[in-house]
Specification:
By secondary structure, the protein is of the alpha+beta class. Helices cover 46% and strands 16% of the residues. The chain is built from 12 helices and 10 strands. The chain has 2 domains: 155 residues, Beta Polymerase, domain 2 (2-Layer Sandwich), CATH 3.30.460.10; 167 residues, 2-Layer Sandwich (Beta Polymerase, domain 2), CATH 3.30.460.10. 33% of the residues are buried. The strands form 2 sheets. The protein has a 5-stranded mixed β-sheet, sandwiched between helices.
Length: 348
């Protein structure tokens, strides 16, 4: 087995990534390709690493994988399946090219999100990157001939960093694939729960407003005939889809589930399950929660208002980078003000 060798950061690594990425992008000319991302330790400036470039080729959806396999085959890549990680396709690099690792993931894939969250956190926190480099050197010295032990030795550090990244308020530019990701997940939720329980599934929150920056988490508002019935019948099927249920939620009229909590993070989806009501009732949080579709639709119809909301979100994210509760609370007055204006002008 090839020994584990860690080298000092090489400023040529970004150029090597770009050379490979350029060939990949050319192979996808005229086809759907969301992005090519430089991930792994060679993507973090100053970080010691094994001298192997890691790339994530991002496609719009898993349905685009067969075409991606065919296009990469023209470059000499050999498809190796998912290597035990669902949703991530691995490829052997072409003969005669510098060794590198190439993976294909659908946009929004949890493994892709983990790669990007870990990379971005280390880029933004050089001290953590320094600690990671020291750990890797120590492990490489101890387990030079045992790659499995070397990788296992990094796990605790990696999961700790991902947990820290999860707590940060990270806003990203609007992704035009978010509606498609919502539609895909909504279909899975409906299939798992059945139409006898689910009345409606709506995309809401910032990822539902074209052009608006957002935390890259898809929010699904699920209207059910009975929250009590959903608590009995919906939790187990949704947990089978990878969701975690917040059993200590103090609001009995709102079931909240998250896909991608640590150590399986970063989070990718939220499900808010409520009973929809015909009229907003300030004393009934479930009805008021469903009424938030007014907020979504008002921002969609008023781009200037969406820009004001974006400015507020950026300011709050800068002020409360690691405090989700403070960030959310800081938006509350604005959100309810917009909802009141939307109710006053329902014809708009």
């Amino acid at each position: 087995m090839e020994p584990v060798v860690i080298r000092d950061y090489d400023p040529q690594w970004p150029r090597q990534f770009e050379e490979v990425a350029a060939r990949v992008r050319a192979a996808f000319a005229g086809a759907s390709l969301a992005d090519v991302e430089h991930v792994g330790s060679t993507a973090v400036p100053g970080l010691a690493a094994k001298p192997i470039i890691d790339l994530d080729v991002v496609i719009p959806s898993e349905a685009d994988l067969p075409d991606a396999v065919s296009r990469l085959a023209t470059l000499g890549y050999v498809y190796e399946g998912d290597n035990g990680i669902p949703g991530r396709a691995a490829f052997l690099w072409p003969p005669g090219t510098p060794r590198h690792h190439l993976y294909v993931c659908a946009s929004g894939n949890p493994e892709l999100r983990r790669h990007l969250a870990f990379r971005d956190y280390l880029r933004a926190n050089p001290e953590e990157a320094h600690h990671y480099g020291a750990l890797k050197r120590e492990l490489a010295q101890r387990f030079r001939e045992d790659r499995r032990a070397y990788s296992d030795g990094k796990t605790e550090f990696v999961e700790t960093v991902l947990t820290k990244a999860e707590d940060e308020i990270a806003l990203v530019a609007y992704d035009p694939h978010w509606p498609e990701q919502f539609a895909h997940e909504a279909a899975r939720v409906r299939a798992a729960l059945g139409d006898d329980l689910v009345l409606a599934v709506e995309h809401f929150g910032s990822t539902a407003v074209p052009g608006l920056v957002a935390k890259p988490v898809i929010d699904l508002l699920v209207g059910v005939r009975s929250v009590a019935g959903a608590r009995e019948r919906a939790v187990a099927p949704l947990e089978a889809l990878g969701y975690s249920y917040w059993r200590d939620n103090p609001n009995p009229g709102h079931l909240f589930l998250v896909k991608g909590l640590p150590p399986n993070g970063p989070r990718t989806h939220h499900i808010h399950m409520v009973e929809p009501g015909a009229f907003p009732d300030p004393k009934n949080e479930a009805l008021l929660f469903w009424d938030r579709l007014l907020f979504r639709d008002y921002l969609r119809a008023h781009p200037d208002e969406a820009r004001r909301y974006e400015s507020l979100k950026r300011a709050l994210a800068a002020r409360h980078p690691g405090d989700r509760d403070a960030y959310t609370e800081g938006k509350t007055e604005y959100v309810y003000g917009v909802m009141q204006r939307a109710r006053a002008r329902p014809s708009e």
